[in-house]
User: Which sequence fits this backbone?
DNA sequence: TAATGTGAAACCGTTCACAGCT
DNA sequence: AGCTGTGAACGGTTTCACATTA
């Protein structure tokens, strides 16, 4: 065979990590329903991507299927779980027991995916000492000390924006490795600390934008809509024609 | 000047929409602090991207800066707001007043970005008729009828997974154009309906993965870590060396 | 002079198409 | 016969570098 010039091979694309998590979620559901095998097309439909992507993603994590058949679901769950560290015991603390923090403490999805909420922290002395969703709330001032006992790896940051930077610094000082940040601000942290931001208002804006660019149907749209929205069709240069894309590419 | 052959020009890349939302958030903060102008480098630092990206993004929405100076913040806020439909009145309903739904009703960030929560829906008769965060809760069975009055464009879906598919169908029937989906499942809906998924467990898994792939420092990591994790360095092909990237490219 | 605005190159991720297995 | 596994083409996004301009 001809040697590939120097070409980098199948790494795991960073976006693929998000998809693996979705495959896992759906595979767990299938397994509970007693299904034992699925092919790339079925998986693709479940998370709304192309079958080729499914095969590439699974190849990238060295999951193997059987040609002519598909993938063994139990094996896939193991493999993806191994990649995402599902059997790893991540200890998680939550900081900021406001209404969002409370909801997150009550949310069972984290535990279901193997994360252990080992403690919560808040300023409010009326909350300290109480439990929500089985998690004890500690005074935020004691994070450093209590972290020595709880050994948290990750933190959920659900404090008000104004407090976010300072609390994040405390978390880093307490030795946390990663922060799931719900405060609408970009934390400035050492590169050794992982951050994933979840900005709810921003997600809503993405939705609004997507909707306003959608093929107009009978559905409700608000009165005014942004004027200048550049698209392939409204190109301000030569050749403004350019073959229109097929409207419905994926199966 | 030489005519560009036929080259497709600056569209707005889809990922740029998410960034615009973040620029807007930070610009609003700067404006409140009395800052009137900012250059691409400053903006880049604020949302943690490269200055070149900032200039490309802003060029793509026809925002103009002054060479040698930077961008006028008030003008930028207007321009980005116009693109994202900030002055458009999006009516939003929320379905599923559990702990997450409650938190979302109390969350002020949606209103701050111009979204109007016009109503909430739940099955529980004890909730119906009460208000949370100033939003009245209606019986879920009446969505169709009440939607005629409320004229909602978007919906926040915060019901349990089992109910998600059926409620989503009701929302579509009621004429909704987009759904912000917090249920951990991929909704199968007509292409005319926009969907943005927010899967909290999945975000946490992304964080865990990112952390486990981080340059190991003194910070806490859980005992076991996935074995086979392909990266550029662990490439199974020729030329496994390949010039290492400079470790800190952005300013 | 210090920044924008922008072609062109580099990079990354997806799609295509088909050879290879079972 | 059917589906996986994968090179190669493609397309979208980012980076680079620099001409341009207030």
Assistant:
């Amino acid at each position: 065979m001809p040697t590939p010039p120097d070409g980098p091979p199948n790494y795991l694309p960073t976006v693929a990590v998000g998809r693996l998590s979705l495959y896992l979620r759906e595979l767990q559901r299938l397994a509970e329903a007693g299904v034992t095998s699925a092919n790339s097309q079925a998986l693709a439909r479940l998370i709304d991507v192309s079958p080729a992507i499914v095969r590439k993603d699974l190849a990238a994590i060295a999951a193997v299927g059987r040609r002519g058949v598909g993938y063994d679901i139990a094996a896939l769950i193991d493999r993806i779980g191994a990649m995402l560290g599902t059997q790893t015991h991540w200890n998680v603390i939550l900081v900021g027991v406001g209404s969002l923090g409370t909801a997150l403490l009550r949310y069972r999805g984290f535990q279901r995916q193997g994360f252990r909420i080992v403690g919560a922290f808040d300023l409010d002395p009326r909350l300290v000492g109480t439990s929500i969703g089985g998690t004890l709330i500690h005074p935020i001032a004691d994070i450093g000390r209590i972290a020595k006992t709880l050994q948290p790896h990750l933190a959920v940051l659900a404090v008000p924006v104004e407090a976010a930077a300072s609390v994040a610094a405390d978390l880093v000082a307490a030795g946390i490795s990663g922060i799931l940040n719900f405060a609408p601000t970009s934390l400035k942290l050492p590169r050794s600390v992982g951050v994933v931001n979840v900005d709810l208002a921003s997600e809503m804006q993405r939705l609004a934008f997507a909707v306003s660019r959608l093929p107009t149907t009978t559905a409700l749209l608000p009165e005014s809509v942004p004027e200048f929205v550049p698209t392939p069709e409204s190109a301000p240069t030569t050749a403004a024609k350019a073959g229109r894309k097929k409207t419905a590419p994926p199966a």
The beta strands of chain B are 37-38, 71-72, 90-95, 115-122, 131-132, 135-139, 154-157, 178-181, 194-197. Residues 11, 13-16, 49-50, 52-53, 56, 66-69, 249 of chain B lie near DNA strand D (CB under 10 Å from a C1'). The CA atoms of residues 97 and 122 of chain B lie 6 Å apart. Chain B touches chain A through 105 residues (CB under 8 Å).
